[in-house]
Amino acid sequence: MAKWEEIYEDIKEEILSGKMAPGSLFPSNLDLLQKYKARSTLTIQQAVNQLIKEGLVISDGKRGKHSKRTVRIIPTRSVNYRRGGFSKEFGQIATKNVLELRIIDQKKDIPKVLQDEITTPALFYHTEQLLNGQLVAVSKAYIPSRIPTQELLKLMSQANASLYGSLEYLGFKPFACEENLICDFASKEERQALRLPKNSNIPIVRLTRKTYDEKKQLVEICPLIYRADVYEFAYQFNF
C-alpha cells in the first residue's frame, strides 16, 4: 500500500469513528505532513483529494493559506420501510419543501420515458424531502389526466396537503405500488438538486415509483433521487 493510501485510510477511520468531530476544521497539509512524517505535501494532498472525492472532507475550492476544509457532517442513517408517503414513513422528523405545483398541458413538458404512461393535463408536484431539517431526497410526481387535476390542484394548494390523502379524498385511494431502484454516482444536476458537496462522489439512489388504485389503474409516477448515504431501504411484501 502506498504511503498516501495509508494516510487516507487512517484519516478516513478517524472521520467515520467521530474522532475528527463532524463539522470541525480539517487539519492543514503542513499539520498532516508532520503527523504522518510524509516526505512531501504531494503525498498528503493525494490522501486529502481522495477524502474530498468521497465527500468525507469538504473543501471551499480555494488554494493556499486562505483555503478552508472541514470534516463532513455525516447524516444519521434512517431505515426507510417503504410503506407509504414520506411523512407516513418518518413521522415528525419529516418535512417537505414544495418547489413546484402546476398543471402540465403539453406532452413535451413530461419526461420522454414517462410520456407513454402519463396523459395530459397532468399534475406536476415537485418537492424536497428533509429529515431533521437536512435535505435527503427530491421527488417529481406526475399525476395523469384520469384524476380530476383541477380539483387535485386545489387540494394540494392547501397548507400541509398530502398527495396520497388528496387522491383518496377524490376516490383514487393508492392501493399498491412498484418501485425500481438504481444506485449510481450523482450527475451534476443531481448533485445540485441534493446540494451535495461539489467535488464529492457521494452515491445516490434513483427510484421510480408507480402507484395504482384498487382497480390497478395508474394514479402516479414519481421519479425520486435519494442520498444513498442516509438510507437503508427495507421492503415487506406478500407472496
Automatic annotation (TrEMBL):
Residues 1-70 form the HTH gntR-type domain. It holds the Pfam family UTRA. InterPro entries: Bact_HTH_transcr_reg, Chorismate_lyase_/UTRA_dom_sf, Tscrpt_reg_HTH_GntR, UTRA, WH-like_DNA-bd_sf, WH_DNA-bd_sf. SUPFAM superfamilies: Chorismate lyase-like, Winged helix' DNA-binding domain. The keyword DNA-binding applies. Keywords: DNA-binding, Plasmid, Transcription, Transcription regulation. It comes from the Bacteria. The keyword DNA-binding applies. This is GntR family transcriptional regulator. It comes from Laceyella sacchari (Thermoactinomyces thalpophilus).
